[in-house]
Each structure stands twice: as structure tokens, then as C-alpha cells.
Design goal:
single chain; alpha+beta; 8 strands; 33% helix
Length: 193
């Protein structure tokens, strides 16, 4: 349906066709996904994931803003997520008896990656923002929901890469490789057996 616009005061009206509007939105979303993907690649715990799996995780990353000195987590509190610093920095103050150590995490770096592997983790120190800070948070519960157990998925991806490198398995589809993987059993041998 068309609408009629009537001018009630002198001014300028700008118009944008639907195709251009969608293209601009798509570029913005793609640029955001590319940036998130680039920030996730160096995270050790995520190295074994495929590009489509990482892109799926990008869709559940939550952006959070913190003021200078604001506390994100207290030492000993339950740790259920990983943080990637996009702007600013974080500092972790670890207190053990009378000693205190501090470690900083700058933009482009992450902390809490091991928290994605277990539901029994704690923050080892107080986590605070150093200056205005923006982080991307990946919660373990969301990771489990969208791709499953991280250790199992990493192992499955590794096994698929190994099988995919064997010429006689090239003709198999991804689902057929998965069936084949489930049928394998592992046996370990000591030297001389």
C-alpha cells in the first residue's frame, strides 16, 4: 500500500528504495559478524570448531558495556562464560592470603575460555573494567544449546578432518562420515604389543 506524505513545514525529504536499504543492513550485519569471527579465532578453546560453527556462536555472543572500575565478576563466583574484550581492557585481581596479583586483558584478547568446557568453574579473581570497556560474552549454556558439548564437537571435527584426508573416504557425505565415526572403536597399544 502506498502512503501520502504532506509537508507541514519547509524541509528536505530523503528516500531510500527497499533493495538499497536491505543491502546496507546486510553489509552492517556481515561486517559485525566478520569482526566477531576475527575476535573468536585466536581463542584456544574454539580452535577446533569449523567456520559455520564459529558463525553460529557469533549469533549468540552478547555485547556488554562497562564503566571504568565496574566489577564484572567477584573472585570465587560461578564462572559460566568467556569474555572477549572488543574495546577498553579488563583487569583480574587475584587475592591469595596477603598476596595479590593482577593480570590485564586488552582489546582483542579473551579470558575465561576454559569455562566453556566445564560447569564447575569459578572466577579466579575479581574482574574489573579498566576505562570504558566493551566485551562480548559467550555463555556455556548458549554454546551447549547451539553446537553441543565443546570438547565432543572439537573431537568430532578432528576425526572428520582425519577421515576426510583419506582418499577412500572422499566420496562420503558429511552425514555418512558421522555414521562411520560412530562405528569406530578406539584401542590403545603399548610398545611391543
Amino acid at each position: 500500500t502506498a502512503a501520502t506524505v504532506r509537508c507541514v513545514a519547509a524541509g528536505v525529504l530523503y528516500a531510500l528504495d527497499r533493495a538499497t536499504f536491505r543491502a546496507v543492513l546486510r553489509r552492517g550485519v556481515q561486517s559485525s559478524m566478520d569482526r566477531k569471527l576475527a575476535l573468536m579465532r585466536p581463542v584456544t578453546e574454539l580452535e577446533g570448531l569449523t567456520q559455520p560453527q564459529l558463525l553460529t556462536l557469533c549469533s549468540v555472543l552478547a555485547e556488554e558495556l562497562y564503566a571504568d572500575g565496574e566489577q564484572l565478576h567477584a573472585q570465587g563466583s560461578a564462572a559460566d562464560s568467556m569474555l572477549i574484550v572488543t574495546d577498553g581492557a579488563l583487569v583480574e585481581h587475584v587475592k591469595r592470603g596477603w598476596r595479590q596479583t593482577s593480570t590485564s586483558v586488552a582489546a582483542g584478547e579473551s579470558m575465561g575460555g576454559p569455562h566453556l568446557l566445564s560447569d564447575k568453574c569459578e572466577w579466579q579473581g575479581d574482574i574489573l573494567a579498566m576505562g570504558p570497556t566493551t566485551v562480548l560474552r559467550l555463555k556455556r549454556s548458549e554454546l551447549l544449546e547451539v553446537i553441543g558439548d565443546l570438547a565432543a564437537k572439537t573431537l568430532e571435527n578432528f576425526q572428520k578432518r582425519i577421515l576426510g584426508s583419506i582418499e577412500m573416504f572422499h566420496a562420503l557425505s558429511a552425514s555418512e562420515l558421522s555414521v562411520l565415526l560412530k562405528a569406530f572403536s578406539e584401542r590403545r597399544f603399548e610398545s611391543g604389543q
